[in-house]
Amino acid sequence: MKQNVLMRIGQVFFYALMAVCVVLIVIFYLNTGNINPDDPKIKQMSDLGPILNYLLVWAYILVGIAIVFSIGFPLFNMASNPKKGLKTLISVVLLAVVFFVAYQLGDDTILQIAGYNGKDNVASTLKLTDMGIYAMYALIAGSILAVLYSSISKLFK
């Protein structure tokens, strides 16, 4: 009974999110009909500005919801089943190790780019960018290895 109620609430929540997305997309495309393609790009962007702001805020809200659920559900599962919670905790620690190692591998040397004097060419930004790239490489390699391992292990069972 409780499971059915939670599933129903989840479905309603999902459909509500989808409805807001569809409404915003329809409003966006209705507003693009008012744009004159002969106007300069800056004028076209300023005409679309308000709806783009709404879409950006909605994207932030969706990311926030995803973060809350991706952190909240594992915490709830850890509290309800401590043995599985230990596995989750180990995976979080391994992820933190991957990011730590990737951060240590990152290079913070200022780039010498001809004609570019932008504000993002600073050591901390470059180090974080390298961390993201190296972490992505490691996580992609890990996922490929996991898929290969699961496929090969099924052959021997």
Q: How does the helix and strand content classify structurally?
A: mainly alpha
What is the residue-averaged pLDDT? Answer: 87
Give the number of domains: 2
Strand element count: 0
Low-pLDDT segments: none
Strand-residue proportion: under 5%
**Structural Rg:** 23 Å
Helix content: over 70%
Shape verdict: flat
**Order of H and E elements:** HHHH
Largest sheet: none
Tally of helical runs: 4
State the end-to-end distance: 37 Å
Question: Care to describe what's here?
Answer:
- The chain contains four helices and no strands.
- By secondary structure, it is mainly α.
- It has two domains: 80 residues; 76 residues.
- Helix 1 packs antiparallel against helix 2 and helix 3 packs across helix 4.
- The radius of gyration is 23 Å and the shape is flat.
- The mean pLDDT is 87.
